[in-house]
Amino acid sequence: MTPVPETQTSEIKTIEPMLPAVYRIKRVQQDTHDTFTMELEPSKRNGGFSFAPGQFNMLYVFGVGEVPISISGDPANKQTIVHTTRAVGAVTKAMRKLKRGDTLGMRGPFGSSWPVGEAAGSDVVILTGGIGLAPLRPAIYHVLANREKYGKVVLLYGTRTPADMLYRRELEQWRSRFDIEVQITVDRAMNGWHGNVGVVTTLIHRAHFDPHNAVAMVCGPEIMMRFAIIELHKRGLTDERIFVSMERNMKCGIGFCGHCQYGPTFICKDGPVYPYSSIKDIFTKREI
Amino acid sequence: METLEPLLTEHPFLSGLEPQHIKLIVGCASNVRFDAGQYIFREDEEANQFYIIRQGKVALEIYAAERGSLIIDTLGEGDILGWSWLIPPYNWRFDAKAVELTRAIALDGKCLRTKCENDHHLGYELLKRFASIVEQRLQSTRIQLLDIYDARS
Prior knowledge:
A: Elongation Factor Tu (Ef-tu), domain 3, seven-stranded mixed beta sheet, six-stranded antiparallel beta sheet, 18 strands, B: alpha+beta, Jelly Rolls, four-stranded antiparallel beta sheet, 4 helices, 33% helix, globular
């Protein structure tokens, strides 16, 4: 069995972490009725943008406000910064109205990352629901780009309906590969849908991986993650090999303001990706 | 002659059963196959079997006027299909349709009901296993009802 991986925390490289830099929008694509993907162009003078899978940026819509958004692009592509956002609040709704050529402010990258380096030699189980696929997509890109370093790779993805599915074309491409098992399920479907119906956690017992040598990366609604952990435990995964991405009200991004305090940690700095073993005592506490 | 005994013994659903009980169950088992689109059973029909899916995918559906057939769940390799054979009045509550070519082991529920009545130890062992499946499906249904991908979740 390979050693238990740890999350990777990158040093914040921004010289002035509270000062947003101006970025121009290169492309906007509507993914679903309420979710869109935006590509930003990094400034030429800093030679591109580096991040680790799982990290996030603070995006600032001028005159409206700032929100934390996970980076959903390919970490190997330093010339394009990709964010997938669900328009649910004032800032993200204003962001959705922006078009190619418009500008917004950005700070980052912030936070810890998925343990893609340490998971080498292990099977990788990527378990996600809804927009939770976005923060995991960089990890999928990395794993597939370095496919020979990993054992079995399994992607389990759940959405509300087939119309809510993100990155449909990429999911089809991944499904057609022989070196990744992709299982998709929806909560609701009409006749004519030939895929799975049921919550994403029901896919865990059918997935093909070695639970004694697997690393699970889990991202989605907390309720989903709770039940996912129960099912992963049933398969035999230990707490140290399960990683979850947490979400709270992040404001400063560098652990100063305290808005995203999560037990003894700050999600913006110590998270959002945690080994489940490090937070399991507070994971189900309602007060936290 | 090759029997279904090795397959049934290895299946997690029946693991831990005493050899004589496995033998009783093997006596009620047969291999079946359903083509894509073929109905395995229909709502209200008499429920006299359950199935251990070996390969393929099965959709559980319910028909709603004006909305057509709604898929409420799908089952795949290794899953158990059907528990209405165990609960009076022994009628299916949903339609079950093979979404793709599906191979399964069919177990004669009527035959097993009689054997369970005569051997309560076997009956209890089977009930424990079915209770676990019912509990899992209930949990899944509850999570589905929560609409966890709603923006407020």
